[in-house]
Specification:
The protein is of the alpha/beta class. The chain has twelve helices and 20 strands. Helix content is about 30%, strand content about 25%.
Length: about 450
């Protein structure tokens, strides 16, 4: 990248070339390598990832009780034999991680990987987990955070706003350790995501940041509220989202209401950044292959072809405290073709969500439902909605609306939903003052509750 901002110098009076402190120098060193590897061919990336994978597997086999037997017969140094054996290795399910507990923790973490850091997942699947990472694996999280900012060409001098969980209503001096270790930044402002949408928009207008990061469903609520009020933060020039599957119409809504693009992030608590939106081809997500191996598998456990949706299976490459080997995180995604941007990093074209987000039909078939905002707004002043399939032929719809619905509006909404869903489901409407958000801040506009 030729227009890389000037790094922060730790030496008084030395502005260029800058000499960062040790943390900044390490991040810049990794960024330099990432800036090379993202342009490697898929074969080069696979070969490099394979070397790191073998190192991780050897460590896991020798020091992690849960993997001793599981990996004992894996031919780590035998090329084709390894690839065949790898495809037969049982997947690690979320329930397995819960059951194995401390048996997944390494008994001999290398000293130079730093201290252990304990984490807890949000439990959005109904199966909350806790695990461990090292300072080193957390460092790679920071390096990829920096990559995401640089890919999206954000101006570090601006103000960065985040509406999310685990934050207070606060104003901070900078954008966070991973960025501030390398570059001087403007301030950051934060707001808890459980704040009512109308108050969030008031706060956003008052803070007037340059960038905003929040969950997709929360961003939708802000956009719809802003559309009704004709409101727009004057300086806002970039939107970011994370933590949920992105609805098909949200990018268009960002453009329609605020005239801004959206940069989405695919991540999870256990593995950090999984894929980042391509800066040139927005519908593509580039797998962060330098940090983890991502497989997209069909129901038979075979790799999916491009254009086919399968389950997401991860192997973390740098967490030697609690390696996750062929971990099925519960998500589904569609593998994409090679990207026109020229990067060799693998491509995901859509992150579909979890299996519970699949609509089930009485004949046993399933599909991913979609509910564009304009389909609702053409009928009634709908601010928020959530659909729950409670039986094969019944859909419960929870709505927040600007005013009570008329009988013709209710009839039209039922007809619209039946048409979009492709079946004459019994549609039951419930008008609420506010839709509750889960403790983890995430929100799903459709959940199938049959058999859960």
């Amino acid at each position: 990248m030729t227009d890389l901002p000037s790094p922060r110098s730790a030496v008084a009076g030395l502005l260029w070339p800058a000499l960062p402190d040790s943390a900044g120098a390490s991040l810049l060193a990794v960024h330099y390598q990432l800036a090379q590897s993202e342009w490697w061919s898929p074969a080069q990336l696979a070969a490099s990832g394979r070397r790191q994978l073998v190192a991780l597997l050897r460590h896991a086999r020798d020091t992690v009780p849960a993997y001793g037997e599981r990996l004992a017969d894996l031919p780590l140094d035998q090329g084709d034999a390894f690839a065949a054996a790898w495809s037969e290795l049982p997947l690690l399910q979320r329930a397995d991680v819960q059951d194995l507990g401390e048996a997944l923790r390494s008994r001999a973490v290398p000293a130079d990987h730093g201290q252990l850091i304990e984490y807890h997942t949000s439990g959005s699947t109904g199966r909350p987990l806790h695990g461990y990472e090292t300072e080193l694996s957390h460092f790679f999280f920071g390096a990829l955070n920096l990559r995401e900012h640089l890919w999206q060409r954000r101006d570090f001098a601006g103000c960065f706003a985040a509406i999310r969980t685990q934050v207070a209503d606060n104003r901070l001096a900078g954008w966070g350790r991973a960025v501030e270790a390398v570059f001087a930044t403007g301030p950051a402002v934060t707001l808890p995501i459980h704040t009512p949408i109308a108050q969030q928009l008031d706060w956003l207008l008052a803070q007037d940041p340059d960038y905003l990061l929040t969950h997709p469903s929360n961003l939708r609520g802000l956009l719809l509220e802003a559309r009704v009020r004709g409101a727009r933060p004057a300086r806002l020039r970039g939107l970011g989202s994370f933590g949920e599957a992105l609805a098909d119409d949200l990018r268009g809504l960002c453009q329609d209401v605020w005239g801004l693009p959206l940069a989405d992030i695919y991540s999870c608590e256990e593995a950090g950044y999984i894929a980042l939106q391509c800066p040139q081809v927005p519908e593509h997500y580039h797998v962060q292959a330098e940090n983890l191996l991502v497989e997209i598998l069909d129901p038979a456990g075979q790799p999916c072809a491009p254009g086919v949706t399968g389950q997401v299976v991860l192997t973390t490459l740098h967490n030697f405290a609690m390696p996750l080997v062929r971990y099925a995180i519960g998500d589904y995604a569609e593998l994409g073709p090679p990207c026109a941007c020229g990067r060799g990093l693998p491509v995901l074209r859509r992150i579909r969500g979890r299996q519970r987000n699949l609509l089930r039909f009485p004949d046993g078939s399933q599909h991913w439902p979609s509910f564009p905002a304009d389909a609702w707004l053409a009928i009634a002043p709908v601010r928020q909605f959530r659909l729950r399939q409670t039986a094969l032929k019944r859909i419960e719809v929870e709505l927040v609306t600007a005013q009570p619905l008329t009988q013709p509006q209710e009839t039209a909404l039922r007809q619209m939903l039946q048409q979009r869903l492709g079946y004459p489901f019994v549609i039951v409407l419930h008008r609420l003052e506010q839709l509750p958000v889960a403790a983890n801040g995430k929100f799903e506009d459709f959940v199938c509750e049959i058999g859960t």
